[in-house]
Structure formats: C-alpha cells, structure tokens
Amino acid sequence: MQRVIIIGAGASGLMTALNISKDYEVIILDKNKSIAKKLLQTGAGKCNFWNEEITLNKYNTNNPQLLKEIINKDNQKHVLALFNEIGIIPKIKNGYFYPSSENAQTIKSAFLNSLGENVTIKDDFFVTDIKKENDKFLVFSKTTNLTCDKLVIATGSNASLKEPSFVAYNFLQQTNHNIRELLPALVGLRINDKALKSLAGLRIDVNLSLYENSQKKKTEIGQLQLTSYGLSGICTFNMSSIVARGLYNKKKEFIEINFLPFLPTTDYLEFFNKRNILMHKPEAKNLFETLLNYKLVNILFTLEKIPSSTKWEDLSISKQKSLIERFTNYKVEVIGTNSLLEAQTTTGGVSLEDINIKTMASKHLKNLYITGEILDVDGLCGGFNLAFAFITGYLAGQAITGDFYVKN
Ligand SMILES: Cc1cc2nc3c(=O)[nH]c(=O)nc-3n(C[C@H](O)[C@H](O)[C@H](O)COP(=O)(O)OP(=O)(O)OC[C@H]3O[C@@H](n4cnc5c(N)ncnc54)[C@H](O)[C@@H]3O)c2cc1C
Q1: Cβ atoms 23, 30 nearer than 8 A
Q2: What's the mean pLDDT in 273-295?
Q3: Residue 403: what pLDDT?
Q4: Mean pLDDT across the stretch 274-281?
Q5: Which tens digits make up the pLDDT trace of 325-373?
Q6: Element (H, E) at 288
Q7: Residues at CB less than 6 angstroms from ligand 1
Q8: Quick one: DSSP state of residue 311?
Q9: Which residues contact 401 (CB under 8 A, 6 or more apart)?
Q10: E-assigned strand segments in 141-271
Q11: Mean per-residue pLDDT for 204-232?
Q12: Which helix or strand (DSSP H or E) is residue 341 part of?
C-alpha cells in the first residue's frame, strides 16, 4: 500500500486527508500536541470558515489568473457539498459562514469523525527536515524518520506563532520553488499621528481610502479602532496586505479617513450651513459633537486651532472648508504594520506558478503537493483564508486518490 504523509493537521491538511481513498495509508504529522490549533482560534473561536461570495477581489496574490481557477465555482460547490456530507450545517451572517454551533470545535470534530481508518494522526511530531531520495520522501523529527511515496505540505504560515517553523519553506526553496517575501497581513497599522493615537480605545464607523504614493488602492467602510500604535479593526486589516507589500517595496502608504461617511450628502459645506440654521446657531463644535464622539471632535477642533466658543458663522469660508476637510478627509501616513506574531495571516509564500492549479502538485518535484496558507495567497477577513485552505486541500486529496473529478 502506498503511503501519503501530510505535514500539518490544520484546515488544508485535514481536508486533504478526508479526500484520500482507503487504498492509501495516510499519516498526518503535526508539531502541536493538540491539532488544528489555528482553526480553533478563527473567528474568535466561532470559526468563520467560508463566505457566500468567494471571488478574486477578496484575495491578494501575484498570480490572480491562476488563483481564479483554484477558487472557481465548481471547486467551491464540491467543497460545500463535502461540508454538508460531514455534518457541518452553516449559519450565515452577512455572507460569513460559521458552523451552526458557532463553535470552531464543531469543524475540528466533523473532520476527525469522518477521517477514514487508513488515516493516522501523529501529534507532537515537529518535522525538522525533509528530503527526497529516489522515489521516496524522508520526513525527519528529532527522534524519528518516516518515508512516504507522496508528500503533502500543508504547514500554513508563521502568522501568530510564537515558535515559527521554516522547514517547509527551506525545503521548497531548495527544490526550486519560488517563495515571495513573507510579510504580515490581516494586522494593525502603525502611524505617527499623535492626535489619533491619543484617542486610543475609540471605535468609530468610517470610510477609509488607501493611497500608495498618489494612487488609490482600496476603499473600505467599517469600524475603525484607534489604538496606542495606530489603526485596527477589520477595515484596516483588509488593507494591511497591500500596505505591508508597499512599504516593503519602499512606497509611501497613506490612509484618508472620512469620519462622516453616513451624512446624506457630500456637499458638506452646504450641509453644515443648513445644520447651523436648523440647530439655531450653536457653537460650531456642537454641530459636530451631535454627530460624532466628542473626544474626536475636540481633537480635530484643536488641530484646526478653533477655540471652543467659536460659532460656525464666525469662521471664514476657507476655515470652514479646512475644518470639514479634517472630518471627511483626514490624511495619515502609515509607517508600518504590526508584526507577524500579531498577524492573522501572511502575504507572500510559494508561487502559484510552481504548482499545477488543478491538483496542487508541485511542478518541480513529482508526488509533492502544496496546499493552504503556505502558498502566495492571502484573503480578506470573512472566511476567505480558510476557504482557500479547504479548496486547495480538497484538490490535493482528490488528485492523490486518482479519481479527480475534473476529467481532462
Ligand atoms: C487569530 C486568527 C484568527 C483567524 N480567523 C480566521 C477566520 O475567521 N476565517 C478565516 O478564513 N481565516 C482565519 N484565520 C486564518 C486561518 O486560520 C488560516 O489561513 C488557515 O488556518 C490556514 O490553514 P492551513 O491549513 O494552511 O494552515 P494551518 O491551519 O496553520 O495548519 C498548519 C499546521 O501545520 C503544522 N506545522 C507547521 N509546521 C510544522 C512542522 N515543521 N512540523 C509539524 N507540523 C507543522 C502547524 O502546527 C499547523 O497545525 C485566522 C488566523 C488567526 C491567527
């Protein structure tokens, strides 16, 4: 009987194992005593494992055309059907899929209950080296070595890990796989702006625009969290992959914040002139304090050097415009991202050009498969990263089994 070793008992490794037929002996190795550790942390323990709209624009990669093939509708349909088969009933909120229990353990259990008798999991098995000799792969830990006919690398990335592992990256690099620089993604953004940092703890609904040099790269609407280091919250996380890569390539990264995205018009001057009349000409500050958090209003008035008692009509039109600009177009330079340890995922990884996108097989080494987050693909918040891990695991498992559903 041929042996398949899967390194990594995370989302993509478990999905691969589930799809390998009983004709193979399957061994899943994981360095942790308790497997699927990251999976259990996802979605704050609720596991946002999928999304209703898995499309190319939800991902960053160097090879969008190849990614498009991997996440195609057919593959999505097959993986969703498989979830159903192993008893995962989704609860869908704003397009985000969670297990109906809203407990990540449900997903882990569903996989463990469904793995065949041919599958063994060896936990606490830290792979320290990988070699290929003749037709066999050799997988080493400090104390043991194992051989196999087919190897699946499903080791994920080092994001959020206190003890990173580079074994898989090193092996892949040595065997001619191209690895795009690994940088943190889905992570907070660092700024120098003292005014915003002094508001640490504040959460505000905003519209954000990300500019690289002078080019607009992305817009996001959502809740911004101000922190002692800078900006956090899903809307900034979703920009962090672009920011990390831009800064790595020595580009300037700026974010423009509109603190008033909910106003019924963008003719702000007219809006505040009317509001001033409607509110019986209060202090100018009051026009804003009745729309936004007073601490934010105070800071922005201070930056504009407008004394508290000033009335709207006492401000010159250019001062009114400049004040409005502070509230609707607050420009802040991003000087860095938080570290990989604080990140949810990694941007960069093994190039999709180095794998067969229908089977996840390496183009450089026969019988090697590469799945999940170790690849050069990172998704936005919303279940896209797990979806990618599951789809690629599915493709590899199906391909190893030999009865791949796409007959070429
Ligand atoms: C806090 C947090 C929250 C997240 N929330 C979400 C979310 O809600 N939705 C979403 O889609 N994504 C989320 N993600 C991202 C998601 O968890 C990952 O993209 C996904 O788990 C990747 O799956 P994977 O199988 O490629 O890797 P992993 O799930 O990381 O599995 C890799 C496995 O390989 C093992 N391994 C690595 N190196 C070795 C070695 N040398 N020897 C032996 N074993 C090894 C690891 O121990 C690990 O178990 C979150 C991530 C974090 C950190």
Answers
A1: no
A2: 97
A3: 53
A4: 97
A5: 999 999 999 999 999 999 999 999 999 999 999 999 999 999 999 999 9
A6: helix 284-289
A7: 7-13, 29-32, 35, 37-39, 41-43, 48, 125-127, 154-156, 159-160, 165, 167, 344-345, 372-373, 383-386, 389
A8: B
A9: 19, 20, 21, 23, 24
A10: 145-148, 150-153, 179-185, 189-191, 203-212, 215-226, 230-232, 253-258
A11: 97
A12: none
254: helix, strand or coil: strand
Buried-state track 155-179, b at ≥16 Cβ within 10 A, e below 16? bbbbbbeeeebebbbebbeeeebeb
Q: Determine the distance separating the centroid of ligand 1 and the alpha carbon of 318, expressed in angstroms.
A: 52
* Lowest mean pLDDT, pick from 104-108, 311-315, 403-407: 403-407
How many other CB atoms are found less than 10 A from the CB of residue 335? 16
- Among 15, 16, 35, 38, which residue has the most ligand 1 atoms within 8 Å of its CB, making it the best to mutate? 38
pTM for the model stands at 0.96
Assign 44 a pLDDT band (cuts: 50, 70, 90): very high
Task: Report how far Cα 69 is from the mean position of its chain's Cα atoms.
Answer: 20
Q: Which residue, by CA, sits nearest to atom 3 of ligand 1?
A: 42
Q: In terms of Cα–Cα distance, which of 356, 365, 363 is closest to 396?
A: 356
Q: Which residue ranges form the domains of the chain, and what is each CATH number?
A: 2-184+343-401 (3.50.50.60), 188-338 (no CATH)
